[in-house]
Amino acid sequence: MKDETEADMTGITPRRRPKPDIEEIGGRKLKPSTLMMGHGFDPALSEGSLKQPIFATSTFVFPSAAAGKRHFEGITGKRPGGAEGLVYSRFNGPNQEILEDRLAVWEEAEEALAFSSGMSAIATLFLAACNPGDTIIHSGPLYAATETLIGRILGKFGVKFIDFPADASPEEIEQVLRRAGDSRVALIYLESPANPTNMLVDVEAVAAARDKVFADHEEKPPVAIDNTFLGPLWQRPLHHGADIVVYSLTKYAGGHSDLVAGGVLGTKKALDPIRAMRNTIGTICDPNTAWMLCRSLETLELRMSRAGENAAKVCEFLRDHPKVERVGYLGFLKDDAQADIYQRHCTGAGSTFSLYLKGGEAEAFKFLDSLRIAKLAVSLGGTETLASHPAAMTHLSVPEDRKAALGITDNLVRISVGVEDADDLIADFAAALEAI
After folding, report:
1. Would residue 379 be called left, alpha or beta, if left means φ above 0 and alpha means ψ between -120 and 50 degrees?
2. DSSP H/E element including 413
3. pLDDT by residue (tens digit) across 154-198?
4. Which residue, among 335, 349, 326, 329, has the nearest Cα to 409 in the 3D structure?
């Protein structure tokens, strides 16, 4: 946000600007958890309201006709420098701009964009990046809807894809990038940890391979990553070579299972074409959702920390249970390539993990049907504990051979631990396991 300015040389009185944000005191850089209480919002612009109002409006009033002309000159590119200010709620709004300012704080990103859902964020990113005949290179598995978007929908418009397993080595990643040949690689898209297997992708290795393989290209394909499972508290991919970070803000950022939204973060250069596409197709989130997300971001660190502590205790119990085959929990990684990625990229193990039961679908269904505290529902990152069966639910549309190759088996249960009492959750899981 910029400070208040005087009338520019054209004589147009600019919109009133908020006071500059306080980002440091006495040389100390303020933490994101502190900045969430007021960053990007000046109460003086809203009748002194401590919290931002919900700006329920479809359009905004220009101070003059000349100001309106200047704004559209910036939007259309007739005047360099783009356009600031508010004009129409398909483009932006006060609630969305405050939300975007606060989202960027967590990742130390230049800019952020808010969307109506995680999938609308991903779809807008792909539409902005791809032309017919281009190739998307991605890690696997991805969220099933993302795979559908790439393979079935973009495929109808001539966009091809090449994928590699999430746990691919640096050498394997480089080999896959070279397989694109002469095809323009529009995007390298990652998901880490992968949904639902919890496998990590080596973002640094992907960025290094990209720089090597495309060293002679005028523009290198951007590396984008879905950071929903760990971000922003436990992983910040922009620090490890990613250019763009994608979120389902429905999950930890929203955190109360009462909204649907998405986000994209990165440099201004990387986000400008995505913003232009969002302006055209109208995938921005609504003011009420943006307001709710700003409320949720105030407690993000508290909620994620408690959920992470709970998950550690629950997984310790599950790991040694006789009816459990194994637990795909990042906190258990050690002495292998995945552990190395975890040590370099992550600051915590998260609260969503993969539970592999001894048996198959029947045992998994019995376990799920016997839970009394944990809710049988898709999604993750809420205050409540959720459990689901990926092979029969979120990834049902994935072909059987691909599910087998990616480790999405019938005995896999995905669990997202909430903020309940950890011992109560352990009692719930113990009783459900005994029921098998």
Report:
1. left
2. strand 412-416
3. 999 999 999 999 999 999 999 999 999 889 999 999 999 998 889
4. 326
Q: Rounded to whole angstroms, how far apart are CA atoms 67 and 70?
A: 5
Rounded to whole angstroms, the Cα distance separating 383 from 231 reads: 16
Cβ-count burial 360-380 (b if 16+ within 10 Å, e if not)? eeebbbebbebbebbbeeebb
pLDDT in tens, 98-137: 999 999 999 999 999 999 999 999 999 999 999 999 999 9
Q: Is the peptide bond before 43 cis (omega within 30 degrees of 0)?
A: no
Instruction: Encode pLDDT of 61-73 as tens digits.
Output: 999 999 889 888 8
Q: What is the pLDDT of residues 180-189, one digit of tens each?
A: 988 999 999 9
Tens of pLDDT along 342-372?
999 999 999 999 999 999 999 999 999 999 9
Give the whole-angstrom CA distance, residue 299 versus residue 291: 14
Please tell me the distance from the alpha carbon of residue 187 to that of residue 7, in angstroms, as a whole number. 42
The separation between CA 175 and the C-alpha centre of its own chain, rounded to angstroms, equals 27
| Residue type for position 344 | R
* Residue labelled with tokens 């898709």: 378
Report residue 117 as tokens: 């859902």
| C-beta separation of 370 from 427 below 8 A | no
Residue where the block lists tokens 């919109």: 15
Of the candidates 180, 168, 172, 193, the one whose C-alpha atom is nearest the C-alpha of residue 137 is 180
Among 320, 413, 330, 432, CA closest to 372: 432
400 burial via Cβ count (<10 Å: 0-12, 13-18, 19+) = exposed
